[in-house]
Write a structure and sequence with these properties.
alpha+beta; Transcription Regulator spoIIAA; Beta-Lactamase; 2 domains; 6-stranded antiparallel sheet; 4-stranded mixed sheet; 10 strands; globular
């Protein structure tokens, strides 16, 4: 997937097919970025009958961002297109709720319904595994994600050291543009020693967020159940480039296996 060049801290990507047009937006939706985006996004007449909008990578949404969302909805309706908000994190939905436009409430209901992940005993196991992994690696940053088996999406259930932009961007992950996403889809650990030189992050919106934290190295370990079902992912982060020694990798692999066994006992 190819992302546009940044426009006032926002990027977008477009995937076209005969049946649908997928528009993904990442970064900050403030008045400056919205003014730039509105002239660069395709018009409804250029899109397929269904236009899918993914805002899951938006880290900030102001009222200008809500106005953009509503304008896209009404423009699509006027052009006899169906616009579907596929994903948006909780901070974006909170801002949309502030609008008095009746369409805003409908947008929130339809999107929020697909992003609920109820608490499960496995979450406590994943958070405990994260704490041990941080001690093993002495990494200052980390997060634990649980897998929603209904749609294969990863959602953060525990973290240490991160501020809101990172947590908003990675609140849900369903693609391969991050170490955790690749680890979950391949069911195999991913070790990145220097993010700035990694092909995994080259040209992605994720690289922008990690640069700002900053994060220079990441390790992501899938936690698997007895039938190789992905229960979650544990990720560790260093602020600069860092080597992940063999002994650490061995201990982390053992920790992930133990967490998987504990999760299976708790009803995974």
């Amino acid at each position: 997937m190819s992302w546009s060049e940044p426009a006032h801290h926002a990027r977008f990507s477009i995937t076209m097919s005969t049946e649908r047009t997928l528009i993904r937006i990442a970064g900050e939706l403030d008045s400056l970025s919205v003014a730039a985006l509105i002239h660069r996004l395709p018009g409804p007449e250029e899109c397929a009958a269904q236009v899918v909008l993914d805002l899951s990578r938006v880290t900030f949404c102001g009222l200008a961002g809500v106005d953009l969302l509503l304008e896209l909805y009404y423009r699509a309706t006027d052009a006899s297109r169906q616009l579907v908000l596929q994903a948006a994190n909780s901070s974006v939905l909170r801002t949309v709720r502030l609008s008095r436009d009746p369409m805003a409430a409908q947008i929130v209901r339809s999107c929020a319904a697909g992003h609920r992940l109820s608490h499960h005993p496995d979450h406590a196991v994943l958070v405990a595994a994260l704490a041990l992994a941080l001690r093993i690696t002495e990494a200052p940053l980390g997060n634990a994600q649980a897998c929603d088996h209904g749609n294969g999406t990863l959602r953060i259930v525990g973290q240490r050291g991160f501020a809101r932009p990172f947590l908003s961007f990675f609140e849900t992950v369903s693609d391969r543009e991050s170490a955790c996403g690749v680890a979950a889809q391949d069911r195999s650990p991913v070790y990145v020693e220097e993010i700035s030189n990694s092909p995994l992050f080259a040209g992605t919106a994720a690289a922008d967020v990690l640069h700002e934290v900053p994060v220079g190295a990441v390790a992501s370990l899938p936690v698997l159940g007895p039938t190789s079902t992905v229960i979650g992912v544990i990720s560790l982060h260093h602020s600069g480039p860092s080597h992940w020694p063999y002994e650490q990798r061995r201990m982390l692999a053992s920790l992930a296996r133990s967490a998987g066994r504990l999760c299976s006992r708790s009803g995974a």
